[in-house]
Amino acid sequence: MTQSERKNTAIYAGTFDPITNGHTDLLRRACELFDHVILAIASNSKKNPRFTLEERIQLAQEVCGDKFDNLTIKGFNTLLTDFADEEGAGVLIRGLRAVSDFEYEFQLASMNRNLRPEIESVYLMPEEKYAFISSSLVKEVASLGGDVSSFVHPAVMNALQNSLK
Prior knowledge:
The chain is an alpha/beta fold. It has a single domain (about 10-165), classed as Rossmann fold. The chain has helices spanning about 5, 20-35, 55-65, 80-85, 100-115, 135-145, 155-165; strands at about 10-15, 35-40, 70-75, 90-95, 120-125.
């Protein structure tokens, strides 16, 4: 893979437990900027996800699998920089919702740069209406009986409701 192809392949990685409208907003932006985007869903058992990796991949495919011609959805359980190297990606997409995200993202980018200096981190901000949405908050509100339908795709809403039964 050429250096140019690496720079035009980006990975948007996360746990996506569950994928929210904020995630899909960033994904849309990434797909407009890069020739190929990989939505990389991390196994990440340390976060005790509500949904299995397979369920999160399936939800992501239902939500955005046919919306973007240049999108691939994959699960992974390795170091992100190793996964990026395997996939030939030269860019890591990250979302910044608020100033409070910056410190963690700065640490993460520094570590990734230390591990693989040739991979760049690019930060995108969601539309303001999604700036406060997080998967954790969506799960919490849903678990307490709140309506999260404006924050997630209907397929995700159904999956959340089924997981709470």
